[in-house]
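fold-stage: in
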Amino acid sequence: MKRFLKNYSHYIWSEEVSSFWVLLVIEIAASIALLIFPKSTILLLGIVLVFCLSLLLLLKSAVSEALFKERSMKQDKGFSSLIESLEDAVVIYDQNFKILAINRATETMFDVKKNEIEESYISPASIKNKRLFLLTQVLFPSLAPGAKQLSEVNAWPNIVNLSFENPRMEMTTTLNRILDERGGVTAFIKVIKDKTHEASVLSSKNEFIDVAAHQLRTPLTAIHWAMENIVKSSENNPEILEIAKEGLKVSERSLKITNDLLDASKIEDGRFGYTFKETDLGQLIGSVIKEMSPIAKEYGVEIISPSPINNLLATLDENSIGMVLFNLIDNAIRYNTKNGRVFVSTEKTDNNVRISIKDTGVGIPEKDLPYVFEKLHRGSNVVQIEPNGTGLGLYIARNIIKRHGGEMGVDSIINRGTTFWFTIPTNQTKA
């Protein structure tokens, strides 16, 4: 009854009927005037005319309402057909969590029936109902064992990853609003994508890479050690020495690929270990530059770094930040030009230090810039220069910086050079 009265009141005060009410008020006023002046023929004709116009307007509004309802029914049918055709589960509910509609995928995923759940209310207490246990956690993500917000908290659509233990499931939910013509919220629609199989495949892949890389690292380390010994013992034999040096480079590259694969796998599984301690960043940068100088000399590249800032202290994992610096400086050297330069600089702010590695090299094409930190991505131009890269170094580096609470970015101009930068939160400088 309340719903009928609400719809009826909305209709009688709608824009289509407003003209009828105006004419009705005029007719009432004219009728009152006719009572005062009963012999006025013109007034009588005016009343009749207004009455006829009122009937026409009422008829027009009734026809418009009927056409609108017909269009709405067609749209509803089209919308129902659309959500039924989706492979993902769809749940539509109002502001009181009354279920308005679900599709077949929802019935299958949550083991519920349309006729049982539609028009019923779901609340956090519904988790006690075994049939609604999983669905309740999806509608109220705070009840789920694991929930990770992927979008901004108050942004639309609202995207959340959900993890469940029993049964073991991974889902991504996308919640959005359904608005009326005035912009008011009439309902919510939640699309639920089952990612359990994808997560299982990814886990199996990471496990395989982990095992394979571990198995490869031991013999590769032995080969690398053997090649180092051959290089040392072949100093008086230039022909063998040249071959041994090339073999040493290949073994070093193979070890780096193996270690990168292991590190990427650990990052994705949350097993990349960190030991945070107070560290002087200036000293760390200086030691990495010293280590990289022979490689720079081999490529004909000069590393330029101003005097480090004294007592630039930060709580960090020295090994992993050293790995980031090594990777960025190594890239700046390898993808530089002959007689090129690499500039390593630090800039202190109130709570952060920004470290920049700028080169005068080949640059990164603009179309590749959005993807440089993605796993296995390599710039289209650098593949021709260094075909044996893994495309994992920058992916690993950015994850390490994020874990330290910092940010990483890149600026580049093709054939002019590239600047990679990252920030690290710092401690108070000691006097």
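fold-stage: in (second)
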Amino acid sequence: MQVLQCNPKQLDKIGSRDNLFKDLDIQLNIDQQIDLGFSLSFAILKINKYSKIFNDFGRKAADYVLSILIERLTEVLKEDATLYHLKQVEFGIIFKHQSMGEINQFMKLLAQPIPYGHDFIDIQLSLGLVDLTTQIKKHSEVLRRADIALKLAKSEALNWQYFNHHLDYYSHTDRDMFIELEKAMNNKILHLAAQPIFNINTGEVIMVEILLRWQHDEYGAVNPMTIIELASKNGYLSKVALYVAKQLVIFLHEHGDLYQNISFALNFNMPQIINITLIEALLKSFDEFGIDKSRLIFEATEIDSSPVSLDHVVNHFQWIKQQGIKIAIDDFGSGYSTLNYINNLDVDIIKIDRSLVCDIETSTRKLETLIALLQLCDKLGVIIVIEGVENISQHNLIKDIGIADVLVQGYFYAKPSSLKEQTFCNSTYFKKSDSYHLN
């Protein structure tokens, strides 16, 4: 891990970890009133992938990012908060706020890309919050709760999470949760959801993305990222992938005739998709049930974190395509090396990350960036899927770009729904219509 450096004068204005402990003890000993007219919270703010910024742009740029973040924190929080430097790239904050909307706006302002020379450096943040008006006796408990919320915040769309007692179930050891995961898979409690992807011009369902869901009696709805993390730590990634694929195979075997013109997409992180033994097992399962492999799409996620060389990925993807399966790159535009992969990988589908769609109705710069990426993908001759469309303004702007047969996905059109209940082709925007096959 890189040593954190920035303007010493900035750090002089920030409290230390010891200062935080003293201030928390003072707050926790105050007899809090039920209705203060505001919420008093403690939060841990973490800069994610700080080492990535250091490696890509250098120490000077990384220090500059840190300085700008501190300036933004100071400006946004003003007199209603106290800021503390906890460790490396983590900060503690005691602050007042009146609504969740304020936190959304706070995170949005902090996470704006930072201009650096001729570049813009993306900054990724996570925030874990604790309500200080609840009955907490020790500052160590405040930090424990904030840390639990922080760990879950990375998988949230808004990158922040408020601690509540439901989340405390997540503080169980990984081993406890993994045992429950094994039971859930053995008893087929994990189920599949599906989200349709539409042709923006015709409203036809072209493909469906398959998603894994786990509703636990004690833990509640377990985040899919938690499932993958548990599987990865315990050597269970292949079994999870096989479980999902086999459930889809059974569904298509029983109901496939109803969806002959629709392709189905399965998500694989890089350790899964480059696992030849796993892919061969999946192909065998497809063949055993007579599934037409040309209807299947393998979505490669987290492509920036590939554990093997680019040449290895190129050859492996070619082999998968030779089996008749289409390859999609997910979250295009969210990473640092995605363009390099596009230049080298022969893929069928590119899915534009939701971060490039957010705010295009209010940001000319973001809209122009999206247009440029769509034009690039169109020239490369790949199928384009735009993720995360959330409102009519975004829909109209994308449609007006005028690129033929763009596909769209998002809550504006349809939320994920149970694969088994077969309601996943319904849309809140498009009228029900016949679909056609992905060429």
